[in-house]
């Protein structure tokens, strides 16, 4: 429901949508494609301003697109023959996305950590061992994430399923809650965990699922690519810098109010001793977590999809009564994220389906062909990163854009397509920091509400710019020098 004071926030996206619609559409795009583009532009503005809950906004966008029968494959044609059945099938397609359900179960795993008390015990242990300072906690989170990153190719599973329940168990010990005193420590820890996972997602080829997918798409487009070792070596200088910098950068830009935790160390020791031995629920949650970690790490070996593992974990938590059925149904943040992310993935797919992205790549290609190889690659890199704002997941972004940019690179004189493609793909994980829908673990931390919506967008832009500048200044010259040797790794 919209309150009267929110009327301006609700009006601005509508105005933006009409402005885009009344701008004459490009000759190569039909009126149907332009209708969808205007709907999508209005939705993005609405998500930024949030006149209503994001999930509700996503549903509104899907419903409007379905009513106009724009969004499905072929609906961007001049003579749009999309049926009502095809439109609604496309409108609901986001609910079959595996990442959506992985994120949903990540919230349920977090509920299991909370209701069993296991998350509280882990959090106390973490604070007891490394929580002398808030900055120390930030580095502890980053270290944990980077250790898990090469083995868990889903950053949603890694950050949302493992780190999220542990990290969000810490702030309440300091009286920091999403709706009260979040800046004490909760906001710092949440953003550090989110940004650290974006960094680790770029460090390893298996740091996030879209990385190997992108490499495969590039190869299919005719561009040879490096393997696991070559990817790691190519990103190594930036990896070291950003791993060391991220918790400290957050500490400077988004400082916590509590900086020295020594004053409560005695209280933590006392609280930890009060816990006593682990109860049955904690033991069950611990064993289930170990199983989840094993199956996520060995997903290819066992032949089990990460989302299948997540659903299995949900079943086990219910069977062993770590959580009850009523508790699962009452987990409002989980259901909210399910609705929100599913609708955004649907809307993002529509941009490709109606031909908007193909038009954009064509227009950009004609411009970049007139530039020198260095400026062309730099321009494509910036465009490749900025376009992340238009996608509701890293997988959708990769599927829609990699083949298009691979084609562009092969048509620019003087450019080494393999080297240039590597430059474009390496920071994909980093750019997940831009928006609360840009990558798998984004909605988890955004929906925790420790970081306000406006702060999330602001910090995303700041960190995204810093990450990209460091990558351009450090890694591009390094890759140009070392590229001939990367095939040996």
From TrEMBL:
Recorded topology in the membrane: Multi-pass membrane protein
Signal sequence range: none
TM spans (from-to): 7-25, 31-49, 56-78, 90-113, 134-153, 159-177, 189-209, 229-254, 283-302, 308-325, 337-361, 373-391, 396-414, 420-438, 459-483
GO MF annotation, one: transmembrane transporter activity
Main subcellular location: membrane
Stated family: Belongs to the SLC13A/DASS transporter (TC 2.A.47) family. DIT1 subfamily.
Protein name: Anion transporter
Gene name of the encoded protein: citT
């Amino acid at each position: 429901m919209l309150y009267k004071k929110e009327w301006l926030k609700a009006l601005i996206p509508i105005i933006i949508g009409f402005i885009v619609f009344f701008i004459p559409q490009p000759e190569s795009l039909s009126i149907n494609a332009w209708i969808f583009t205007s709907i999508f532009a209005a939705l993005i503005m609405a998500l930024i301003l949030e006149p209503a809950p994001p999930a509700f906004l996503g549903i509104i966008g899907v419903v409007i697109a379905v009513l106009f029968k724009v969004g499905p494959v072929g609906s961007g044609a001049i003579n749009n023959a999309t049926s009502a059945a095809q439109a609604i099938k496309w409108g609901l397609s986001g609910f079959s996305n595996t990442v959506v359900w992985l994120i949903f179960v990540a919230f349920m795993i977090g509920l299991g950590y909370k209701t069993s008390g296991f998350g509280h015990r882990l959090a106390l242990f973490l604070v007891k061992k490394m929580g002398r300072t808030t900055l120390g906690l930030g580095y502890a989170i980053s270290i944990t994430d980077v250790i898990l990153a090469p083995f868990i190719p889903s950053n949603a599973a890694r950050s949302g399923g493992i780190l999220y329940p542990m990290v969000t168990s810490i702030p309440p010990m300091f009286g920091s809650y999403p709706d009260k005193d979040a800046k004490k420590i909760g906001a710092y820890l949440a953003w550090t965990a989110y940004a650290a996972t974006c960094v680790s997602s770029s460090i390893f080829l298996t740091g996030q699922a879209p990385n190997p997918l992108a490499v495969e798409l590039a190869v299919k487009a005719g561009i040879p690519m490096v393997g696991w070792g070559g990817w790691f070596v190519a990103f190594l200088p930036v990896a070291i810098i950003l791993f060391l910098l991220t918790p400290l950068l957050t500490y400077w830009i988004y400082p916590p109010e509590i900086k020295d935790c020594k004053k409560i160390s005695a209280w933590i020791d006392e609280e930890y001793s009060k816990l006593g031995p682990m109860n049955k629920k904690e033991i069950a949650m611990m064993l289930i977590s170990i199983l989840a970690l094993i199956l996520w790490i060995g997903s290819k070996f066992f032949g089990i999809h990460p989302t299948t593992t997540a659903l299995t974990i949900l079943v086990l938590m219910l069977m062993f009564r770590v959580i009850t059925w009523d508790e699962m149904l009452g987990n409002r943040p989980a259901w909210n994220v399910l609705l929100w992310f599913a609708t955004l993935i649907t809307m993002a797919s529509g941009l490709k389906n109606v031909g908007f992205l193909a038009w954009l790549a064509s227009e950009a290609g004609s411009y970049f062909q007139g530039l020198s190889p260095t400026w062309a690659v730099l321009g494509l890199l910036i465009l490749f990163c900025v376009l992340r704002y238009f996608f509701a997941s890293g997988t959708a972004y990769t599927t829609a854009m990699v083949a298009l940019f691979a084609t562009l690179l092969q048509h620019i004189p003087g450019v080494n397509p393999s080297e240039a493609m590597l430059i474009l793909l390496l920071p994909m994980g980093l750019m997940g920091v831009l928006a609360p829908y840009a990558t798998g673990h984004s909605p988890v931390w955004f929906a925790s509400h420790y970081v306000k919506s406006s702060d999330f967008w602001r910090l995303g832009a700041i960190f995204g710019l810093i990450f990209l500048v460091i990558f351009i200044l450090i890694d591009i010259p390094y890759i140009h020098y070392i590229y001939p040797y990367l095939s040996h790794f």
